[in-house]
Amino acid sequence: MSNIRVTYSGLINFVIGIISVFTGLIFTLTVTRKLPQDELGTWALIGSLLVYATIISPIIDYWLTREIARGGKSGKTGIISTGFFSVFGLTIFVILAYFVSLESDASFEILLFGCIIIPVQFLQKILHSINMAWKPQTRSYGMLVFEIVKIPTGIFLIYFLDLGIVGAIVTTFVAHLGEIILLVYYAREKIRVSFSTLFIKKWFRLSWIPMYGNLQNLILYLDVIFFTLITSSVTGLAFYTVSISVVAIVNHSSSLSFALYSKLLEGGKKEHLQQNLTNVLYFALPLLTLSIVFSKPTLFALNPQYMDAWPIVIILAFKVFFHIIRDIFESGLYGIEKVDVNEKSTWKDFIKSKLFFMPTLRIIQNILYVIILAIVLWIFVGQNVPDLHLVIYWAIVGLVIQIPFTVYTYYIAKKEFPIKIPKNSIIKYSVTSIVSIGISYSLFENFVEYDVSIFKFLPNLLLFILIGMSMYFIITYFIDVRTKKLIKSAIKEILKKN
Asked: How many angstroms separate the CA atoms of 498 and 495, rounded?
């Protein structure tokens, strides 16, 4: 057993995640300020194509986490096998890039150059899966290294050498290498085992499970491709990409529960889910409020030309929030499923399991999402609606589809876990968030001038964001018993020996 500490791993991941937001902000600012809209849109398109290039990676990494968390020795087999899989990924990427470039204004040469990221991304995923099984917090360390390496590399290549999107691609490649070095160091104990073809046979025999689960992502990322093909432009993707960068901070609140899956795999108590739900809400609600209230100034900092995208930020922030809540319930359901422990389980057993049902639910959601999105885009493109408005409709469709599926997943999880929605805590955290961050924003608007110089504007923005969040933590500490317990628990966990 790895004796995974959910609170400790979650807090480490959350803190590093927040730090990564600010370190990553420097790279994001470099990209959004130096890249024209068409290149920024192409950058977003490359990100979506990479999802399809790594379509088969779950065949390995899906089982690695489950096996190693239960004492399996498949680490080296996974590392060696990933080389073959990345070749397949490169082929898929090149084919997709060619056809997408024919139907849009994206450059095929630029898209093709983006394939250098594929091999390192495959290896990174494998190492993430290995470390996730026994030391989940190391995944956060890798993320921090990735963001830190991006800063000097990106500034040098994009800002000083003015390499544009080529510089962004090379920066991402180099940052992944830095992350991989760290992840290899932490995973060395699980890699120093024998290579076994038995694991490969098992992975291929059960490959339909992770491949079916990954189908949800393949469908989901059709939104970017559909938008590009239907509008014949990548300009709208720039507004979407910048908005996603702003709401990324909300997504980091999910870090508090990411070790829940591993803990349940190794036999942890079901009560961990309730505790993690409350902890996530404590951080998610103020971060949701922060991204909404400070949407305009944050967009201005990224690039003044995207300031009008604030409605997109607000809609996407709520979508991410509901997505986070659903992920908690899904992690719990995946973690308690034991059908793969029994070597005699048949395909019928797997189909009846949560390993099949939960992805099916996601697939249904994503199919509805992309179909409705395609219809909406097709209708409004014919009416010459501006790209900004098209992206707003895009965000609305995503939110409307997300909410009912989150509610349904909650009812499924409630049958397996002792869950109670902490209504009093939600009200308390929400009101405190609105008051604290609202006051901070009011002070910001009265005392800070919107200066195009990022060196003058950004420090002031970060200062008032810090003031708002500090007010929230101080107030909740004195009015909420759960907060005091969380802080004491955090200190206790951190003081423990790793």
From this structure: 9
Measured CA to CA, the distance from residue 363 to residue 357 in angstroms comes to 10
Task: Give the whole-angstrom CA distance, residue 342 versus residue 223.
Answer: 38
Which pLDDT score, from 0 to 100, does residue 59 have?
86
Q: What's the chain's length in residues?
A: 498
Model confidence pLDDT, tens digit, residues 145-175: 998 899 899 999 998 898 999 999 999 999 9
Residue corresponding to tokens 């024919």: 102
Q: Where are the alpha helices (DSSP H) in 155-196?
A: 164-191
3-class secondary-structure state, position 419: coil
H-run or E-run covering 136: none
**Ordered DSSP codes for 214-270:** HHHHHHHTHHHHHHHHHHT-SHHHHHHHHHHHHHHHHHGGGGGGTTHHHHHHTT--T
Distance separating alpha carbons of residues 417 and 169, to the nearest angstrom: 43
* pLDDT (0 to 100) of residue 238: 87
pLDDT at 404 (0 to 100): 96
Give pLDDT tens digits for 20-73: 767 777 788 888 888 888 888 888 889 889 988 888 888 888 888 888 877 888
Round to whole Å and give the CA distance between 119 and 270.
37
Query: Which residue in 131, 169, 159 sits closest to 46, CA to CA?
Result: 169
The pLDDT of 286-313, averaged and rounded, is 93
Closest CA to 50 of 120, 105, 149, 126: 120
Q: What is the pLDDT of residue 498?
A: 47
Q: Characterise 73 by phi-psi region: left (phi > 0), alpha (psi -120 to 50), beta (else).
A: beta
| Burial grade of 10 (CB within 10 A; 0-12, 13-18, 19 or more) | buried
